[in-house]
Amino acid sequence: MSRLKTLSFGLAAVTALGTLAACSNYAPTAVPKSYLQGTALDRNPIGVAKRTEFLEIDLDTSGSELSLADKARINNFVVDYRQKGHGPLVMSLPTSSANPQLAVAAISEARTIAWENGVQYEEISDSHHGTEEDLTEPLILAYQTYDAIAPDCPSMASMDFADIKSNNEQPTLGCAVRTNLAAMIADPADLLGQRALDPADPLRRSVILEKFRQGEATGAERSDNESGTVSTAVGN
């Protein structure tokens, strides 16, 4: 009797092992390989594209200086360069001009505006363009910048949410997050690598360290006007 029980147990064990082997050979095919690699955000990357921003300033053949409107356009262009520009700020003078005095004065004015906005002279690259025959070429300013390219999210209407043959996430998962992030990134060039850190301030660090040693608050002191308390101007 004991031999029969042992034989039955052995057959059951063999059957169970065979079943497990069959399961391993016929794994569910609904799970894509990408599902096991990275995260939903990794599968919806943000692209980065370089482009060139241009500003053209027409030179008045009878003028002696740039108009206030043109100076404002240059100023706005330089401000944008400071915020999102990379590489040099190119200032290109036409090779030939019907008003060469204004052309030279315009370049000088543009350099002054750039300096007033914190652009160092070594950050400016002088260039020229046009031909001797063409006397209508404008003054051109240019710089390189980067754009964040959001992923192409599939339409939610194309998703079959009733399909429950697997526990996979939908292809749309994480795509909206990446799209919103692409719209909020201040400088898409940061996606290509880390920017160099600004030099440390050892004097400030020593001041904070000394305050810590003395048991004093290391944060900046605030006045009553800067308090974070809720205003009592409006009654309950």
UniProtKB/TrEMBL annotation:
Record Pfam families: Pilus_CpaD (PF09476)
Residues spanning the signal sequence: 1-21
Annotated segments matching region Disordered: 215-236
Transmembrane segments: none
UniProt keyword Signal present: yes
Keyword Signal: yes
Record keywords: Signal
Stretches with biased composition (Polar residues): 226-236
Stretches with biased composition (Basic and acidic residues): 215-225
Xref: InterPro entries: Pilus_biogenesis_CpaD-related, Pilus_CpaD
NCBIfam families: pilus_cpaD
Protein name: Pilus assembly protein CpaD
Provenance organism: Hyphomonas beringensis
